Amino acid sequence: MTLSLGWLSALVAGVFSAIVLQKLCFPYFWRDLFFLLKVMRYGVKLELFKLTSSVHTVLDRFLQHAQRIPDKPFVIYDGNVHTYLDIDKRSNRLANVFLEKVNLRKGDCVALLMNNEPDFLCVWFGLAKVGCSVAFLNTNIKSKSLLHCFNCCGAKALIVGSDLVECLDGILTSLLEDNIQVWAMKSKSEHREVYSLLDKVDAASDQPVPAALRATTSLKTPTLYIFTSGTTGLPKAAVITHLQSLKAAAGFWAFGATEDDVIYVTLPLYHSAASLIGIGGTIELGATLVLKKKFSASQFWNDCRKHDVTIFQYIGELCRYLCNQTKTELDKVHKVRMGVGNGLRQDVWREFQSRFGNIKMCEVYGSTEGNLCFMNHIGKIGAVGRSNFFYRLLFKYDLVKYDMVKDEPVKDQYGFCQQVEKGEMGLLLSKVSAINPFFGYAGSKQLTEKKLMRNVFVKGDAYFNTGDLMAEDCEGFICFRDRVGDTFRWKGENVATTEVTEILGLVDFIQEVNVYGVEVPGHEGRAGMAAIIVRPGFMFDGKKLFEHAVKDLPAYARPLFIRLQEVMEMTTTFKQQKFQLVQSGFNPSKIPDPLYVLDYQQKSYIPLTDLIYQSISAREHKL
């Protein structure tokens, strides 16, 4: 008896010691394990699709809900409620029009240029029902880039929103010459070459088209093309397969969302965050979506209270705008419990939770075309993701040393990359494998190959180059530090410096341009700045440059600051030197070169004075 009690006491002491040790040394063990098991369960379902060659797509999931919960609100927009059945039937009408009037066939690609509205979803689903892939076009891009997008994905038709038809001015002739049909979401078209769609939809049947049209046997079948800016300049069409769509659709569910949640989406649907995670995630849950045409900081919390919103999607800039609103007694009066997004700065994160309540902010890291995703399921402030022993078993990634001055990875004597130490900043690379494939970009194998690094650690390996500098601490939390190469982020959009350089280079007085991003106090991301060498015999003309930038560049890509230089510095590999320019910023008291700032009131680039600089730093001058 005494012996038994001794063993029992020892067992209890051992278990207690193990619990204490786990809490001290591995405080996130169980939360990590349960989260990963949940994700793995979803992964097993995807693997079964591969084995059975019977893929259950996001659209199939939507159609399930349309039968199971037909009267449940799916989309609430501008005060109007659209049920799952409503969207299903309207997308059926569109699918019938696409087959009978537009003469689309399974496998065709169709471009979609629309703002956030329920018909964006109806057109998208209608095209998917007839087996077409859909290319989401950024509503901000201009004529040259817009034409380039069509060439990338090989679209046979364009569906354009009623409020965006004027965006086609100047390129409509080129589209027609390429035999691209243009259909507007109108009952009557003012353009003879543009067909009206709504009158055909009203007369069409709402009966479903044959299911065989949408059926697919492979997860690798492309379903969408989402355009992303990158180091090559013009937008690139990232190939989105059913595999990527299904993975993204599990995001909300993985963070603990349920069918009872009401999700608020104000981000543009042409981006993967809103379409793949926002719409796809709502469909995976069978939840309700509150859709907004554009984000409004003044209406945000009123909308949340009106519709009992529980989850919202964000980018860091969105949260900063909310924090800048005048404080009210209703700041914590709402049902929002979770935010899902990326790019949230630590100071804004703390201020947001302090002011609006203990809302769990779930950061997600991953590019549209990338093969790696981090999720900060713990909610630690400042981290974009979480890694651990379990995660590394499934996903192979590395942080490698990067030379900021030379703008290239550091190599050892054998030509291989070198891993950084814990806590040290490095370039994030993700290994390409059967589990984590990289599908690349449409239209060019060269573009796809440029995003890959080969022979990184051993001969023959291949890694996806994220272009992001990250750091991983001793607890496994991953933090974003900076971007490298020719891309920066401003106003929630990626800006390709080479595209801006090409467009500015068309101005007659500019001989050479070097575009980069600079940090601005109190703002997310980096603002565009261009170092310019004026052509001999010419003078800098702020008004001409302003007119050119406004005409040919979307607002987020226009350089806010100009720096005139006599000589453009180069790296040892003859690339334009950006690092020193980025470090110098735009402070006129510390930079000897003439500086200019974009001024919309004067419609010109005007001299950047110390007074204007102080106003910008104090957030009094609107950028």
From TrEMBL:
UniProt EC number: 6.2.1.3
GO cellular component terms, A-Z: endoplasmic reticulum membrane; plasma membrane
Reactions catalysed, as given in the entry: a very long-chain fatty acid + ATP + CoA = a very long-chain fatty acyl-CoA + AMP + diphosphate; tetracosanoate + ATP + CoA = tetracosanoyl-CoA + AMP + diphosphate; a long-chain fatty acid + ATP + CoA = a long-chain fatty acyl-CoA + AMP + diphosphate
GO molecular function: long-chain fatty acid transmembrane transporter activity; long-chain fatty acid-CoA ligase activity; nucleotide binding
Membrane topology: Multi-pass membrane protein
Name by which UniProt lists this protein: long-chain-fatty-acid--CoA ligase
NCBIfam families listed in its UniProt record: PRK08279.1 (NF006134)
Pfam families listed in its UniProt record: AMP-binding, AMP-binding_C
Chief location category: membrane
PROSITE patterns to which the protein is assigned, alphabetical: AMP_BINDING
Compartmental location: Cell membrane
Enzyme class name: ligase
Residues annotated as domain AMP-binding enzyme C-terminal: 499-575
GO biological process, one term: long-chain fatty acid import into cell
Annotated family: Belongs to the ATP-dependent AMP-binding enzyme family.
